[in-house]
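Example (one chain per record):
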Amino acid sequence: MTGSVASFDDLVGLGVITTADGTAVSFHCIEIDDGTRTIEVGVAVEFELLAKLGRYEASHIRSVPAGM
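Predicted structure:
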């Protein structure tokens, strides 16, 4: 799936990705694939959905290079 980071709180490590159709998907910083545990708001990303505790969260989050 693709979307963009709508919000991210560095202190707690939680954020939200919004997809093109407006769906909001939450994520935890451990799911960012580059290992930095932080990501900028507005960055375009690719991700997978992970069923967790009765809901879906984003996992394997990767930044999409500009122009893709």
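Caption: The chain has one domain: 2-63.
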